Amino acid sequence: MIIRSVEFVKSAVKPADYPPAVLPEIVFSGRSNVGKSSLINTLVKRKRLARTSSTPGRTQLINFFEINGSMAFVDIPGYGYAKVPQKVKAQWASMIETYLTTRETLTGLILIMDIRRNQGPVESAFVEWLARRQIPAVLVLTKADKLSRAKQLDRQRLAARAFPDVSAEIILFSAKTRLGCDDVWKAIERLIEVKPGSS
Ligand code: GTP
Ligand code: MG
């Protein structure tokens, strides 16, 4: 994908604050600190477009970005280990569920998982929920640079077994080495059927 323009549009909490639903939208989801914001930055070749941090819970709002004037990326808070009070977690969960269930232009979800972590019941339940809602999902195992190539492939096979109903390949990714960047773009293009170079 040739990146001609990348723009932060706005942050929002509730639907009234979302930007107009015009462009096909891809949302990036996963546990806190897994590397969602880093993955977005890697895809669009910007170091600090989406804010990242070594402290879980960096992203606290729904952040909308516009790419090439032809699609939108959405960065959302992570689930799980955020060092935030239970009450805030519940607010985030409801904010994200509202987004996922009401956004008409939502076209696909990139589910990002740490390659070193076993996929647990939270991920399985989420994948099932997405399937029921007919939200297409692409699975990405990130931080692949932390493992040898052989271990990466082992983890990929294990993930495929954990999600037997996910027909698409599970993509190995690293924000550090850019491994898998082209594969994630291809998956996004398939989701939104935008051909490279078109707008
Ligand atoms: P929240 O917004 O807090 O939920 O986090 P996030 O999922 O957006 O994660 P973020 O992109 O902020 O990255 C979290 C930490 O992981 C940062 O310290 C990143 O530098 C690091 N990180 C992200 N991706 C990779 C990767 O592919 N490889 C390595 N080695 N580190 C990564
Ligand atoms: Mg983030």
Written description of the protein model:
The protein has 199 residues and is an alpha/beta fold. The chain has a single domain, classed as P-loop containing nucleotide triphosphate hydrolases (Rossmann fold). Helices cover 32% and strands 21% of the residues. The protein contains 5 helices and 7 strands, in the order E-E-H-E-E-H-E-H-E-H-E-H. It has helices at residues 36-44, 86-102, 121-132, 149-162, 181-192; strands at 6-12, 25-30, 62-67, 71-75, 106-114, 137-142, 171-172. The protein has a 7-stranded mixed beta sheet with strand order 1-3-4-2-5-6-7, with helices on both faces. Strand 3 and strand 4 form a beta hairpin. The protein is globular, with a radius of gyration of 16 Å. Mean pLDDT is 90; it is low at 195-199. The protein binds guanosine-5'-triphosphate and magnesium ion. Residues 36-37, 58-59, 75 line the site of magnesium ion.
Mean pLDDT: 90
Radius of gyration from CA coordinates: 16 Å
**CA distance, first residue to last residue:** 11 Å
In spatial order, strands of the major sheet run 1-3-4-2-5-6-7
Q: Identify low-pLDDT runs.
A: 195-199
Task: Indicate the topology.
Elements: E1 6-12, E2 25-30, H1 36-44, E3 62-67, E4 71-75, H2 86-102, E5 106-114, H3 121-132, E6 137-142, H4 149-162, E7 171-172, H5 181-192
Parallel strand pairs: 2-4, 2-5, 5-6, 6-7
Antiparallel strand pairs: 1-3, 3-4
Guanosine-5'-triphosphate (GTP) binds at residues 30, 32-38, 52-54, 56-59, 77-78, 142-143, 145-146, 174-176.
Key traits:
single chain; 199 residues; alpha/beta; Rossmann fold; 7-stranded mixed beta sheet; 5 helices; 7 strands; globular; disordered C terminus; binds guanosine-5'-triphosphate; binds magnesium ion
